[in-house]
């Protein structure tokens, strides 16, 4: 039996038929996988919902916006302070990341409608906090009871003379968090990006889709600033709404998490002509490659020289520690199951340490994240994806400009991933397993069949995996450590993984009396 | 930290800021995990289930299993009946539980899914069960959901055959597995056979033995839930969380119940022990008298370090009342006592405690939040905070020591294994309070004032 068949073996015919499209073993010609489709009811999935993708992921990290969750208390509560998107406020920038705002809808609000309460909540947030901007995120019941949050937002925007943007990200929309990313991207593009008037400098860039989990964005920014880049905004980690307003002025967009932010990247290209470059700041070699790719885009000898200088210095600074961790971790095997980018990004970092990835999967990715953007024209729309609006973007004639000539662009596209993402699968070895929307049952099967040394996943799996005797580290929250990005992050990662593998408790699991065959004693004749 | 929170208090009627409660379903999920070989099932969109599992896992640092009906937009329009049917079939097929405990979410409640009817229409294999309860998240809180799920088990399963047995029913409030173990230990010491529903010990404090089992050995047995209908009496340990399920059992099977506070602190534990002794007619064993005496001994010895100190307590109603009782017994001043869960009964009970101990100037409020508590503290501070992890923001902002007790504790370890109930639990809480206050004194005092002996 193939590995894939062994994983699927115990499923009923119905479930088998569905799941077999989501699990593949990489061979020379087999790259196709089914993704971004409904989870079968009853299957213990790791996926979250549209609200989680919109408020929790994309909007939550924007620090100076008061985000009001419109709904019963749960959703707002769960997305309060739990994601580790770090942010710092200052004299001019309020930091609401520590706060949770909700309309805490009660039964009468559901029965008679919640608009009145929402309006009052906006009034109160303005009176108490005077935020520069307000966002409203809908939870499950809101759309069903017919609250028009967009009308409320428009009215409040006039009344209080500041940006108020509503997001219809009810939990049941789409098939995972992914729909919520898209809705958030649309809102940012429609209402915020392009309203600022900052002037670009020579090397103005944006970072897109870096969430500053554990301080990742700060490490990335540190490196880019050393080289001399002017970072207009990182969307959204530790960002301010006023920075986002200016996202249209950059000469280049760096896309870190393709899944959650590619819509903004595409729309910026269509509207303003800005190209995007797929980067990966997770892993030493991939950080180096990304820095060189960016330099090639700007094609300025001085910048290129400075890039090499910084790379050399950074590599020298971490060399000894990297070598040490590599000597300890080399030859280990890993399985990765994370959201929609990290399962790819972290394979590179693991490779830096000589750790081999034997299985990887995404929770809510689309086929292009697995197979590369060349499959985009072939992805069929289904009822669920049709429910998420695709913005039609017109060219902004006044502000549209191309940084490269057509000729330069075509030439460069062959050399660096400009407006292109190759997907995860091409980077994986033959014989590795790829699983989309992996569930609890399959996690147990992977442990049993593939026996990885380390299983990177999230909190819901972590203790399942560890109880089975395998180290599990969370790649959503980094187990409250980090940063893991960039050069310094790589060292942190190596330290944490080695610590996890060598902590003495692993050697104490078996009680001594389980090892000795029998308890000593003397025989008595039984009559 | 929390720099934007103003000192000046303005009235709010719509905006909840920094809540001290969460939604019903997570309570239902917790209760269902306390039944042996049970799969909690969330009938709604999968995000709720994901959030609730995450929340429980973060508190217990142990797997919290649960499945979802994974609603999509279609199900939200046409109803989730077929989703539930498919889900139940798949769960029995793949995860092989003995029982599935369905709770609703605000989505399935808003569209009015008749879950009871869906279940009635199902073909369920002999010996397997599917039960349900309603947990609209726009009513009550996670505490309400906990009670509703227990009532759901009783409604579906408990039977009165007319032949009574001698086992006492215990319905514990929303407490940790460590508390449930302690309650059972006390019952054993009293020599009383019992059925406890739910019982998350052995499930959410499962040991590391080198292999994962989806259904660890803990949890109330289905047969025992059935047999609860023939019990002589139910003790509901949590005046605000446990009355509904106890009442449900009385309604359905005629089992009388006695509503008691969570046995936290001396008075409430005394009440529990007395109720046990009355029930069994047994004398209280020396072992318990010894524990009680040790606790009082500790209080007398250490009183200078906590007497008269003011404290703010926040969290779930029964737990907050229990801690309030203990700190009053210690001679502390529970200056602010809040819960996010709605219900005036909480305020009344807190007031009763205040007047019983003759303290004045203390405020109790239900349906409150941590933002409000913080503003009060900004206007008139306290010496100590007691509650879950979210209070750490206030603790840091105002530089006030924090003792973690209750739900959720997301940022510490071991708490779920240890009790706060009973005399032993009170002893533990007293130790934590003392350590917090005395560490603080050591930290803040001048060098010449550092006391070696205290
Ligand atoms: S949608 Fe409703 S039930 Fe689900 S987490 Fe949010 S408040 Fe709770």
From TrEMBL, chain A:
Keywords tagged on the record: ATP-binding, Iron, Iron-sulfur, Metal-binding, Molybdenum, Nitrogen fixation, Nucleotide-binding, Oxidoreductase
Cofactor section: [7Fe-Mo-9S-C-homocitryl] cluster; [8Fe-7S] cluster
Catalytic activity: N2 + 8 reduced [2Fe-2S]-[ferredoxin] + 16 ATP + 16 H2O = H2 + 8 oxidized [2Fe-2S]-[ferredoxin] + 2 NH4(+) + 16 ADP + 16 phosphate + 6 H(+)
Enzyme class (EC, first level): oxidoreductase
Protein EC: 1.18.6.1
Domain of life: Bacteria
Chain's role: This molybdenum-iron protein is part of the nitrogenase complex that catalyzes the key enzymatic reactions in nitrogen fixation.
Protein family (similarity comment): Belongs to the NifD/NifK/NifE/NifN family.
Name the UniProt record assigns to this protein: Nitrogenase protein alpha chain
Source species: Thermoclostridium caenicola
UniProt lineage: Bacteria, Bacillati, Bacillota, Clostridia, Eubacteriales
From TrEMBL, chain B:
Cofactor note: Binds 1 [8Fe-7S] cluster per heterodimer.
Domain Nitrogenase/oxidoreductase component span(s) in chain numbering: 23-437
Keywords (A to Z) from UniProt: ATP-binding, Iron, Iron-sulfur, Metal-binding, Nitrogen fixation, Nucleotide-binding, Oxidoreductase
Record has GTP-binding as a keyword: no
Cofactor: [8Fe-7S] cluster
InterPro entries named in the record: ChlB/BchB/BchZ (IPR050152), Nase/OxRdtase_comp1 (IPR000510), Nase_comp1_CS (IPR000318), Nase_Mo-Fe_CF_bsu (IPR005976)
Gene3D superfamilies reported in the protein's UniProt record: Nitrogenase molybdenum iron protein domain, Nitrogenase Molybdenum-iron Protein, subunit B, domain 4
Job description of the protein: This molybdenum-iron protein is part of the nitrogenase complex that catalyzes the key enzymatic reactions in nitrogen fixation.
Family: Belongs to the NifD/NifK/NifE/NifN family.
Protein name stated in the entry: Nitrogenase molybdenum-iron protein beta chain
């Amino acid at each position: 039996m193939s590995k894939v068949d062994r994983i699927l073996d115990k499923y009923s015919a119905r479930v088998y038929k569905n799941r077999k499209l989501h699990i593949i073993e990489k061979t020379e010609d087999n790259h196709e996988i089914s993704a971004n489709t409904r989870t079968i009811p009853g299957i213990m999935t790791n996926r979250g919902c549209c609200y989680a993708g919109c408020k929790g992921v994309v909007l939550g990290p924007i620090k100076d916006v008061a985000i009001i969750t419109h709904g019963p208390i749960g959703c707002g509560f769960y997305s309060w302070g739990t994601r580790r998107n770090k942010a710092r406020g200052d004299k001019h920038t309020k930091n609401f990341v520590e706060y949770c705002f909700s309309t805490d809808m009660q039964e009468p609000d559901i029965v008679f409608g919640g608009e009145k309460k929402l309006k009052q909540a906006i009034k109160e947030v303005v009176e108490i906090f005077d935020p520069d901007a307000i966002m409203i995120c809908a939870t499950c019941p809101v759309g069903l009871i017919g609250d028009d949050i967009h009308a409320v937002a428009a009215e409040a925007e006039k009344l209080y003379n500041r940006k108020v943007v509503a997001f219809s990200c009810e939990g049941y929309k789409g098939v995972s968090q992914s729909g919520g990313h898209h809705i958030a991207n649309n809102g940012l593009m429609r209402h915020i990006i392009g309203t600022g008037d900052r002037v670009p400098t020579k090397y103005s860039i944006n970072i897109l889709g870096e969430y500053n989990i554990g301080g990742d964005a700060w490490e990335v920014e540190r490196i880019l600033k050393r080289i001399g880049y002017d970072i207009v905004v990182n969307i959204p980690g530790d960002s301010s709404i006023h920075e986002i307003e200016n996202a249209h002025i950059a000469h280049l967009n760096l896309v870190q998490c393709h899944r959650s932010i590619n819509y903004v990247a595409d729309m910026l290209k269509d509207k303003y002509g800005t190209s995007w470059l797929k980067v990966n700041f997770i892993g030493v070699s991939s950080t180096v490659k990304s820095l060189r790719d960016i330099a090639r885009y700007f094609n300025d000898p001085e910048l290129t020289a400075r890039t090499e200088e910084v790379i050399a210095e950074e590599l020298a600074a971490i060399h000894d520690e990297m070598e040490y961790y590599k000597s300890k971790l080399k030859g280990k095997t890993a399985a990765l199951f994370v959201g929609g980018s990290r399962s790819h990004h972290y394979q590179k970092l693991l490779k830096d340490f000589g750790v081999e990835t034997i299985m990887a999967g995404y929770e809510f990715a689309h086929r292009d994240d697995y197979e590369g953007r060349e499959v985009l024209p072939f992805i069929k729309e289904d009822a669920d994806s049709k429910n998420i609006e695709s913005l039609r973007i017109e060219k902004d004639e006044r502000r549209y400009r191309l940084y490269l000539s057509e000729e330069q662009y075509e030439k460069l596209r062959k050399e660096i991933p400009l407006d292109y993402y190759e997907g995860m699968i091409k980077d994986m070895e033959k014989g590795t397993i790829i699983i989309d929307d992996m569930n609890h049952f399959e996690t147990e099967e992977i442990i049993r069949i593939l026996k990885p040394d380390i299983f990177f996943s999230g909190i819901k799996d972590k203790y399942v995996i560890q109880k089975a005797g395998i180290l599990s580290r969370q790649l959503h929250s980094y187990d409250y450590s980090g940063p893991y990005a960039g050069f310094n992050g790589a060292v942190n990662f190596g330290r944490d993984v080695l610590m996890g593998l060598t902590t003495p408790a692993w050697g104490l699991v078996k009680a001594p009396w389980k090892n000795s065959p029998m308890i000593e004693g003397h025989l008595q004749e039984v009559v | 930290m929390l720099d934007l929170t103003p000192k000046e208090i303005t009235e709010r009627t719509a905006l909840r800021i920094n809540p001290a409660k969460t939604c019903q379903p997570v309570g239902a999920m917790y209760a269902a995990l306390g039944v042996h070989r049970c799969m909690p099932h969330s009938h709604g969109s999968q995000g709720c289930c994901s959030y609730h599992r995450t929340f429980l896992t973060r508190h217990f640092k142990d797997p919290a299993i649960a499945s979802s009906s994974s609603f999509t937009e279609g199900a939200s329009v046409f109803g989730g009946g077929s989703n539930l049917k498919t889900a139940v079939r798949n769960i029995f097929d793949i995860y092989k539980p003995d029982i599935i405990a369905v709770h609703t979410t605000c989505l399935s409640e808003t569209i009015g899914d008749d879950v009871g009817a869906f279940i009635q229409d199902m073909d369920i294999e002999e010996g397997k069960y599917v039960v349900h309860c309603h947990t609209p998240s726009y009513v009550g809180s996670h505490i309400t959901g906990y009670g509703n799920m227990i009532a759901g088990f009783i409604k579906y399963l408990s039977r009165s055959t007319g032949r009574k047995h001698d086992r006492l029913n215990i319905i514990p409030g929303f407490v940790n597995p460590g508390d449930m173990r302690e309650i059972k230990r006390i019952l054993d010491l009293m020599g009383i056979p019992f059925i406890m529903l739910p019982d998350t010990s052995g499930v959410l404090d499962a040991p590391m033995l080198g292999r994962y089992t989806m259904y660890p050995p803990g949890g109330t047995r289905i047969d025992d839930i059935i047999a609860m209908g023939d019990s002589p009496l139910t003790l509901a340990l949590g005046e605000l969380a446990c009355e509904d399920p106890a009442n449900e059992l009385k309604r359905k099977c005629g089992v009388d119940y006695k509503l008691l506070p969570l046995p936290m602190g001396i008075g409430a534990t005394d009440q529990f022990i007395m109720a046990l002794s009355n029930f069994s007619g047994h004398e209280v064993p020396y072992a318990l008298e010894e524990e009680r005496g040790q606790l009082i001994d500790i209080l007398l010895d250490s009183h200078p370090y906590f007497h008269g100190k003011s404290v703010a307590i926040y969290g779930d109603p029964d737990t907050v009342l229990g801690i309030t009782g203990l700190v009053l017994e210690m001679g502390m001043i529970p200056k602010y006592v809040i819960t996010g869960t709605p219900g005036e009964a909480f305020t009344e009970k807190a007031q009763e405690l205040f007047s019983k101990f003759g303290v004045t100037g203390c405020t109790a409020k239900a349906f409150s939040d941590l933002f409000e508590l913080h503003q009060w503290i900004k206007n008139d501070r306290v010496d100590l905070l007691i509650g879950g992890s979210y209070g750490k923001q206030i603790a840091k902002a105002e530089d006030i020591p924090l003792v973690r007790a209750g739900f959720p504790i997301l940022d510490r370890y071991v708490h779920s294994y240890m009790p706060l109930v009973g005399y032993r639990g009170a002893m533990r809480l007293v130790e934590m309070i003392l350590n917090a206050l005395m560490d603080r004194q050591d930290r803040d005092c001048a060098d010449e004032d550092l006391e070696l002996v205290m």
